[in-house]
Amino acid sequence: MIGRMKKWLGIEGVKLELLLPEEVEAASGILQGRVRLESMNPHEVATIRIVLIERYARGRNTERLIDEYELGRTELGQAFSILPGESRELPFTLPFAFIESNIDAFGKKNFLLKGLAKAAKAANQVSSDFRVEAEAQVKGVALNPFDKKTILIKH
Fold it and tell me: What Pfam families does the record point to (predicted)?
């Protein structure tokens, strides 16, 4: 009974870990990494979904606004079994594209406006943080294993 409950909740089940570079060049438009899977019990992994998300914050104090944008998504769709004590690393390539803000578009018009756009971003406390999230769909488990890691994307 307790064993079935543990399996259903994913306890002692598949553990997922993202292995990513510390920083990525924005111009490349590609993030390459690996997903490590380990398990204490036999399980069947159906798919692994990997997403790159930008957390875009602007404004001050009570007027602070935060939006999240999905910049890229990939799915490792090959189903496989993972045995007890086994560790698997699966490589992935995640293509991504930035969503340009109004201030960035204004700054790209010419080199004089670039400095003005930079000052406007500083005055409005604009910041972007990036994270990668991965979730594995495991058959027979209610709570799927997942991991998320922050990453630096250089412009």
Answer: Spo0M
